[in-house]
Sequence to fold (407 residues):
Amino acid sequence: MLLAAAVARGQGGRDPASVLEQARARLQAMARNLEKYVCVETLDRSSYERAASERLVSTDRVRLEVSLAQGRELHSWPGATRFDARNVDALIGNGPVSTGAFGGYLAGVFGQPGVTFEYAGEQTANGRRVFEYRYRVPVEASRFEIKSSTAWRAAAYEGSFQVDPESFELSRLTVRTGELPAGAGFCKASTTLEYERVHIGDSDVVLPRQSQLEIVLDEGREARNVTTFSKCREYQAESAISFDAPANAESAATRSGGRGRVALPIGLPVTLALVGPIDSTKSAAGDEVSAKVVKPVRRAGSPEVLIPAGAIVHGRIRRVEHHLSPSPYFLVAIAFNRVESQGVVSPFAARSEPDAALVKELDANLTVRETGFRFWGVGTFLFRTGKSSTVIPAGFESKWFTLVAGR
Fold:
């Protein structure tokens, strides 16, 4: 550890160098301790165009679960049985995203050699006296990676943090990018993280409450991501966590009850009605969603019922977006992966096409923004409205066509 400047004692008599040493030890332990916890991470993203003034172009929301293992953040869809081995950008597949807010920055700033620190004075934050420090992480000590056009590359970063000189607890941490690797696709990024004490089980722990990421993108665009953490819990002794390769989080469920499982041919029409509403002010990509089969599903020309009316299909919301330009509309995409009938769970894959005329009229982009890839096994629904929110009600019916399950 290096302290980059000689410092005087704080007004309360505390030695800033001593406070830093004890706070750093506590924060290293805090980063390790985060591996015992999992939180729900809700990401609200906004995209702006920067011309004479900022203009909001679109918003969307994503929800994940997050934990930490060996300094690396791991993510899954809420309620899934395992964490996904992929990077979070591959899991979400749409729009700018960053990791580090849950615990990656703590491990990188306070657990790595070669980081320099400098005392920046006393501040008052939320009525409390805090010591503020600046830090710098050079590229050779950095775990901070930025995706360029060809690969992930390490980058230097710097920022500041505030700690209570009595309890040594962290209350605020900022992160700013340094020189960026070629092909990064953006000019600069900064993150502000706020921490709070949370009671979980029989103990109190300091966990991130919220982070705000601001990215200045190329071509006069800017993105702002606000991440909030909630429903944090400690792993129980009987919990089993699997870090499998990419797979549907619910694949274990589709393996249950092999006898009586339904094998569906491609192209069968299926009418579905939502079991519960999808509210743009609350719902997020990643949330579980269910729908009821309205009419019996049969093979063409056959009396055999493959899926009875009343069967329930399960899946997740894939996109919840509000577009304001050039025309205002909401886009909601849903993907189902299993059907449940009389206690038997079978694979299920289907597609629902949006109204082509409405797509053209709204100039709606149905592809994933960052990859240009169009998901096949989804239903995409467009709702033209100038209102700030919309609700797809329970009972909303839509027509789907079966695909080969697992495609």
Summary: Residues 24 and 161 are 11 Å apart (CA to CA). Residues 251-402 form a domain with the Lipocalin fold (CATH 2.40.128). The helical segments are 16-33, 88-92, 104-110, 251-254, 356-362.
